[in-house]
C-alpha cells in the first residue's frame, strides 16, 4: 500500500476580485464536510487540514468539519493572499471544543516584515494521529 502524505489541505474557494473565479459561488459547508470525511476514510493516518476558506464558516460549521475528520488548521493573521481566522479566535474555538493544539509542525517566514504563519494540528478524543 502506498504511503499517505503527512498533511492534506482541504480548501473552500475564496473568490478574489480580478481573478478568473471571482464570481464563483462559494463552497457550501456540507460539501466541505463530505470532502473532509472522504479524505479521512481514504487517508486515515493523514493530517487533514481545514484550510483556505475556513474564515467563511461559523464556529459551529468548523466544528462539523472537525467532527467529520479534519484535525489540522493554519492559524495566524494572514495566510498567503486571503484573510485567515484570528489566532485568538482559533484558540477560543479549540478551548470550547476541548481540542488540545499540538506544536506547529513548521514555520514559514514569508518575508522579513511579515507575521509567521503556523500550521496547527489538534488532537482530542475524536481525533487520531499517525
From TrEMBL:
<dbReference type="InterPro" id="IPR013785">
    <property type="entry name" value="Aldolase_TIM"/>
</dbReference>
<keyword id="KW-0004">4Fe-4S</keyword>
<dbReference type="GO" id="GO:0051539">
    <property type="term" value="F:4 iron, 4 sulfur cluster binding"/>
</dbReference>
<dbReference type="GO" id="GO:0051537">
    <property type="term" value="F:2 iron, 2 sulfur cluster binding"/>
</dbReference>
<dbReference type="GO" id="GO:0004076">
    <property type="term" value="F:biotin synthase activity"/>
</dbReference>
<keyword id="KW-0408">Iron</keyword>
<dbReference type="InterPro" id="IPR002684">
    <property type="entry name" value="Biotin_synth/BioAB"/>
</dbReference>
<dbReference type="InterPro" id="IPR058240">
    <property type="entry name" value="rSAM_sf"/>
</dbReference>
<keyword id="KW-0411">Iron-sulfur</keyword>
<dbReference type="InterPro" id="IPR010722">
    <property type="entry name" value="BATS_dom"/>
</dbReference>
<dbReference type="GO" id="GO:0005739">
    <property type="term" value="C:mitochondrion"/>
</dbReference>
<feature type="domain" description="Biotin and thiamin synthesis-associated">
    <location>
        <begin position="9"/>
        <end position="101"/>
    </location>
</feature>
<dbReference type="Pfam" id="PF06968">
    <property type="entry name" value="BATS"/>
</dbReference>
<protein>
    <submittedName>
        <fullName>Biotin synthase</fullName>
    </submittedName>
</protein>
<keyword id="KW-0479">Metal-binding</keyword>
<dbReference type="GO" id="GO:0009102">
    <property type="term" value="P:biotin biosynthetic process"/>
</dbReference>
